Amino acid sequence: MRLLLASLCTLPSLALAQSPYVVYRAEPMALNCHYPSGATAGAAPITKTLADDVTALAPYAGQPVTAISTVFYNYNAGGVAFRPRYRFWHNNISGYGPGTYLGPAFTTDGVVIAGNSTAEIFFDITGSGFNLPSTRFWMGVTLDNNFNNSKMATPSELNWVGIMPGQTIRGSSDTNFFRSTAATDLVNQNNPGGAFEVGNLSVSLGIAGQDFQGKVFLEDVVPTAANPRTIQITASSGPVTYLTQDLPLGNPATSDAYWITVPATPPSGATSAVSVRIGGRPFLHKTLNTQTPVPPSATPESIDLGDVNLINGDVDGSGEIDAADIDEVIAAFGQVFPGDSDPYADLDLSAEVDAADIDIVIANFGAVDE
After folding, report:
1. Which of 130, 147, 315, 318 lies at a C-alpha separation of 20 to 30 Å from 65?
2. Which of 188, 209, 230 is the last residue of a domain?
3. What is the pLDDT of residues 328-341, one digit of tens each?
């Protein structure tokens, strides 16, 4: 028996919640490279500004931005502290680069990253008044040490701190980023001067969270028979169950669809990982895991969980194919269908319990639920 678990598709929902919800993301690439920031010394050490063009998911234009996250690296041998400072510009100049200053400006309280490591740092900016632009804009990051604060990085240490390169996976960005000529936070500065280099910065923007609905498509290849099978599909996260439903096999339809609704703020005990469990007598269970919630977009997205090949032969539904299952098939040997016979003993749905059914149990002997 074989099931095809086609996809888990995310669709937009209108129910707003308050959890962070990514509308633009550039994941760090698996490369040993970085974008150093070029710090200056003096009474107020600060780095140059690194900026990347951002086009977030279009359906959420105008909504309040509630979160910023950035993947920073620290190539110093020891841990250092520094302050990221975020700036934004319109994309409204002739040519390429940051244009009119957009604002607002954000300066964090400071972060600490261990030596020779990277970390994604999350900042909650709920209520800041910064709404997601409807068209492409520029997002810049500058680092400082809070006016030579003794607990923060020295200017030389700041030179070994920067932003990881990224690959855009949500929203869009071209393959260039901007490095300012001056080492300054560029606050309220229009059309800053600088140069462009190849790559994207690993940054993310989020808005208030939303519920999402996932759609699981299941296609079975079990023929219609006198003793049809019904197994189960369950989607859960920790102690929280989002879906439990019977799955009839051998339907004339080529596929069945099952909806999973996951709230943006998961119930107590739930996490972002959702387990999809499929199976039931006489098939062993198989569990597949996926990460949620996944932000919806204008076009529903898909997480391909691959084929689900269930193992046949658990006649008694114990979760293991063992001697008891062989005994049950032997006890039903020769029975035919329809009739008052053991439907689970007819493993190959031939309408008769015969040697082929014993062969299936023997071939899968010792297998257990996954």
Report:
1. 147
2. 209
3. 889 888 888 776 77
State whether 221 and 180 are in the same domain: no
- Token duo for residue 104: 């607002």
76 pLDDT band (50/70/90 cuts)?
Answer: very high
Per-residue tokens: 253: 């339809």
pLDDT tens column, 215-256:
666 776 676 666 677 888 888 888 888 788 887 777 665 566
List phi, psi (to 5°) of 64.
-65, 130
At 256-310, the pLDDT tens digits run: 666 676 665 666 776 667 788 888 888 899 888 876 544 444 344 555 667 778 8
**Pair 90, 164 in one domain:** yes
Residues 333 and 357 in one domain: yes
The C-alpha atoms of residue 89 and residue 99 are separated, in whole angstroms, by 6
Query: Using CA atoms, how far apart are residues 26 and 30, in angstroms rounded to an integer?
Result: 12
3 state SS of 305: coil
CA–CA dist 42, 121 (Å, integer) = 27
Whether residue 10 lies inside any domain: the answer is no
pLDDT tens string 44-72: 889 999 999 999 887 778 888 988 989 99
Number of structural domains the chain divides into? 2
Q: Are 45 and 155 in contact (CB under 8 A)?
A: yes
Name the H helices within 138-205.
Answer: 155-158
What length is written for the chain?
A: 370
Amino acid of residue 270: A
Compute the distance between CA of residue 263 and CA of residue 242 in angstroms, rounded to an integer: 9
Please indicate, yes or no, whether residues 161 and 32 belong to a single structural domain of this protein: yes
Range of the domain at 316: 212-292+311-363
Contacts of 295 (CB under 8 A, 6+ apart): 10, 21, 22, 23, 57, 170, 210, 212
Measured CA to CA, the distance from residue 212 to residue 242 in angstroms comes to: 12
Tell which residue, 216, 213, 262, 218, has the closest CA to residue 237.
262
In a domain, 11, yes or no: no
Which residue is it, tokens 């299936």?
360
